[in-house]
Amino acid sequence: MVGRIWDWWRTKTPLVDAAFAFPLLLLSLLGATGGAYALGELKVLVLTTVLIFPLVFRRTLPRTTFAVISLISFAQWVVGIHPIPPNASFLMVLYTVAAGRSFRWGLAAMLVGQLGSLLVLARWSITAEDAQSTGITLVVLVAGTWILGLHMRTRRAYMRSLEERAARLERERDTEVQVAMAAERARIARELHDVVAHNVSVIVVQADGASYAIETDVGRAKQALETISSTGRQALAEMRRLLGVLREGDGAGPFAPQPGVSQLNELVEQVRASGLPVVFAVEGVPEEMSEGRQLTVFRIVQEALTNTLKHAGPRAEARVALHYLGDAVEIRVVDDGRGASAADDGRGHGLAGMRERAAVYGGTVAAGPRAGGGYEVVARVPVREEVRT
């Protein structure tokens, strides 16, 4: 509620300017009614009104307001009315011009103020000492107000540039994430070719075998039909899930057999050859998984080890563990490298790719620095469709 009121208040620029001018108006009225000025109360009220009322528009029409208050002050000097507190409105509008308009307009306003200071000295200074002290005071007030306005103008420009830069970086980051997601989905489309081709090939072979054996060996034919049924259901489930995340109109890419769990040993040996000591362990009884799930497991391990090579630093070691839990497989990749202190340019999309791959099969991926140092990636992928979470 308070935030909405504040946002509404900030949009009412004349009301805000009137609120800032009110203390000056109150001070001037108290001085007028108390007989602090040599002028009559009526003249003071009129002069106070014409000097302070334009401040209501000082940010809406800063140059016009500055011109009006300057002309009124000059007319005050012409008729010989001594400066009074409402003349401080000139300093307020000088600050507004210096802070809200170009440097040339601010400099011109400051020079007008210095000219007014000289006119005041020429008319009301009695002694040389009085002229010197008054002149220094007026010059410092005008110059200080102008410098303060310039400082605020520079600060506002700097803040605007920071906001624009942050907005631009956010747009660029979103664009990069979208491009990375599109590339990942394109790779999934190419992988779908291999999954479907394998399952359809199995179905064709089993169907041919069943057609030959149906008259001579009914048991073998029945077994082939059961294999066709399970393979077809598995292929349909994978196709529905993969096609749901594909980008329409993706161009065809090179098709090649994709790796699976059985290729993890080769992957580990390849990483070891790169200079990173890796311990690979398998716990539990390995479950039969579809090729798509095996590919997901392989890619998660591959990406986690790649991140370890890139960010863990020298003398780091890694451990890869596959734990078969019956209805799911847990992948845990741990290293003892730099962990949270590792440099991050914010441009990587490996974790997003891992999470997207695991989510296709109802799995999850959690990654982050370890409390005792190093980094950890833990993924859980269901091994069958019926246990998808």
UniProtKB/TrEMBL annotation:
Q: Which InterPro entries match?
A: DUF7134, HATPase_C_sf, HATPase_dom, Sensor_HK_TwoCompSys, Sig_transdc_His_kin_sub3_dim/P
- Which keywords does UniProt give here? ATP-binding, Coiled coil, Kinase, Membrane, Nucleotide-binding, Phosphoprotein, Transferase, Transmembrane, Transmembrane helix, Two-component regulatory system
Q: Give me the reactions it catalyses.
A: ATP + protein L-histidine = ADP + protein N-phospho-L-histidine
Per the UniProt entry, the Enzyme Commission number(s) are: 2.7.13.3
Every Histidine kinase/HSP90-like ATPase domain range = 292-385
Q: What class of enzyme is it?
A: transferase
Residue spans crossing the bilayer: 20-39, 44-61, 105-126, 132-150
- Quote one Gene Ontology molecular function term: kinase activity
Query: Gene3D superfamilies annotated for this entry?
Result: 1.20.5.1930, Histidine kinase-like ATPase, C-terminal domain
- Which ranges form a coiled coil? 152-179
Q: What is this protein called?
A: histidine kinase
